[in-house]
# Entry
Amino acid sequence: MERTYTVGEIVKTKKPHVCGSKDWKILRVGADIKLECCGCKREIIMMRFELNKRIIK
Ligand SMILES: [Zn+2]
# Structure
């Protein structure tokens, strides 16, 4: 089943970011997904399938 993502939603990744935070805020949803780290506020863009693999469901 396809996981859906909503702008503003917080997702948790299995592995922490370099800053130690596991929480990410979704900034944009499209073919790829833009995320902001809740720890250091750094922004990254990830393909949807990559995010599906990395988050805790
Ligand atoms: Zn971070």
Q: What stands out?
A: The chain has a mean pLDDT of 95. The beta strands are 10-12, 23-29, 32-37, 43-47. The two ends are 12 Å apart (CA to CA). Residues 10-54 form one domain.
